[in-house]
Hints:
Elements: E1 20-24, H1 40-45, H2 47-53, E2 57-60, H3 88-100, E3 104-109, H4 119-127, H5 132-135, E4 139-140, E5 163-167, E6 173-178, H6 193-208, E7 213-216, H7 248-262, E8 272-275, E9 296-297, H8 300-304, H9 309-321, E10 328-330, H10 339-342, H11 355-359, H12 365-381, E11 385-389, H13 410-414, H14 462-466, H15 472-485, E12 495-496, E13 503-509, E14 520-526, E15 539-543, E16 556-562
Parallel strand pairs: 1-2, 1-11, 2-3, 3-7, 7-8, 8-9, 10-11
Antiparallel strand pairs: 4-6, 5-6, 12-13, 13-14, 14-16, 15-16
The protein binds alpha-D-glucopyranose.
Amino acid sequence: MPTPSAPSSPSPDSWWRAAAIYQLYVRSFADGDGDGIGDLAGARAHLPYLAALGIDAIWFNPWYPSPMADAGYDISDYRSIDPVFGTLDDADALIDQAHAHGIKIIIDVVPNHASDRHPWFVAALAAGPGSVERSRFWFRPGRGADGSLPPNNWQSIFGGPAWTRVVEADGSPGEWYLHLFAPEQPDFNWGSADVRRDFEDVLRFWFGRGVDGIRIDSAALLCKDAALPDVTGDEQPGPAHPYMDRDEVHAIYQSWRAVADSYSTVNLGGRMLIGEVWLPDGSRLARYVGPGELHTVFNFPYLNCPWDAAALRQVIDSTLALAEAPATWVLSNHDVDRVVSRYGRPDTAFDLDRRPYFHSLPVDLALGTRRARAAALLTMALPGAIYIYQGEELGLGEVQDIPDELRQDPIWARTHGADPGRDGSRVPLPWSGTEPPFGFSPVGAAAAPWLPQPKEWRDLTVAAETAHPESMLQLYRQALRIRGSAPALGDGGMSWQPSPDGVLAFDRADARDAGVPSVSVRCVANLSAGPVALPPDASVLLVSGPLDDGLLPPDTTAWLRIG
Ligand code: GLC
């Protein structure tokens, strides 16, 4: 096991600047033991698949012990593995095996809130008002003569009030506690020195086991205004909440960065911190990636952007203008609708707060798939790191017809079905065969996959797509192989090229040998309604769909070799 070096040592290897990072949603990736839920044994068994896909790192969604009120984002022990996923030994073996394949491991840490079964919260309930135990969370007396009204008017991001009242040890109605998400996810009070110390220790625990990076859940929400003022109008709920996104958080991330840097060694590479920061105004992202803070943040403006050349160009430019951090490019994750469905709708944007509207729109899957292929090549040509959410490489669509009684996302229950929630992007992966469980679970499995798989996925299994040269999987494999080997792609600069309306064209130059004539890659993405000509002196490296008489058809992207 690695030991920390001197605290101030710089990161010797900024692998995250250009990495292709695969998001592995463990409960839906592969089921090793036949209980219908994905696990670490399943993930280990498919590491060769990921190595062959050509990714550099895996981000694991939470794998810790959890009552699963929010699919593992309600953690009861930050230093272990949930038995449904395996053991700490499995995690150690997985980290080692991944490293042997040259793949880094990023894990999710959830600092904004714990599970209501976390020992600290259980102790807080028992200890009563005014105790040190309660000071680690946000307990407050209620308003009104008998305290029966919540302490303020904040709403939960998952729907309903952000406060729940407890019953005190003597059976009387007691204080209220704050939960920005489900009631089973009480928010930590980051004003507590115990909380700050314990999380640094959690980072050391995992970095010490060889983990290469941490994805920080809800990274902008940690620090609240201790006065907990009411909000007005449409200020709530959400990440842009006026009483969060506060300056205090920067001292916390500076100390996390010092911990990460202290584990960075020349042999093992740098340890990375990436924040999940949903802020509508991308310019505020710079606050989180200042010197000595987070290395990078997820690019949600890119994910939310419609399939529109001018809008995408604007997001790309503003992303690259954030000089403090390497860019990340994200098309999907476990919280949003899958990309082929989004791009197949008449409105191709996305917004977490308007999921019911997007689900009410018709989906043209063939169109969405063509655009998703074009988007994949556009995304992989941009300078920076890319995130691929499992199943994106297979072109899986959002499953919108999950029977109500099988839905598990707390958003569904807390909005009384008004918001379908996120289950449709979390359906277990199809690996092989012609009917469910499509190789997700072993033969003779005791249980069906935890969410039902559409029968149409028989054409989208890894096995079926491997056999099909034009499949989404083959496109991802080829693109990742070229991206990994062409020095012009990945990290570096880009230069926009003149192009007709609705077309994005840019060059990536090999910047290694300044002054030496070098090979550039040009990316041309046609988002216009008609075909466009390609430059006469270019040779095609890869194209997301067939050319039409030498022209690049609509909703198609080409990678060209120039010079
Ligand atoms: C983040 C996660 C999401 C989770 C929420 C609460 O947004 O990505 O899945 O429900 O935080 O932890």
